[in-house]
Amino acid sequence: MPLIPEEPQIHESAQGPRATPASGRTAPTPRPVPGPRPAAPSRPGRPGPLRPTPPVQRAPRDVAAQPGPSAEAAPAASPASVTPQVQLIPASAEGALDAAEEAVDLLLDSGRAPGDVLVITTGEQHPWAAHELSFGEAPYWAQHDVGDDVFYADAAVADRAGRRPVVVVAVNGGPDTVATTALPLALARAAALLIVCGDPQQINAVLGAGV
Question: What is the pTM of this model?
């Protein structure tokens, strides 16, 4: 009778960890309940799991508790103290406006917002500026204040324009004195990038040979 001793050798009840012979019993599988135990942090009654969360809240408090270094770093990061990058696009007085338009298109294609760009002309006004000024200066400058589109201004009134991330200057004619005053003004209005389209010798003479 070899079958009789084999029947009592069922290790399912005696050995719980062996879930392979007792494939029908799924009770051994839920035994690894230590997995759900990490979910216990959701229980507010246990201070142990809640300890990792206070450090996250303490981090901002520690930063706020140190106003000295943060306040000192703020002036260094202020936009007024950052020197904008200067790019020169060689162009004749007749082609400076077209070069400026191409520069604006490249800026917009690269992801710049239209409101980030200010275009200044030293000679003939940009057609957009001439058209908008035909309705009066009030609505013209109102569009500048909205700041949601590229704004075109003549060098004579560019000092009224505010700072923008990018300023494009088209040296498209006009007296040399206009460029002499417009280029430093444009440099002061540019927060990140200044693009000048015109005669390199004239531009370098005003802004410096390092341009």
Answer: 0.62
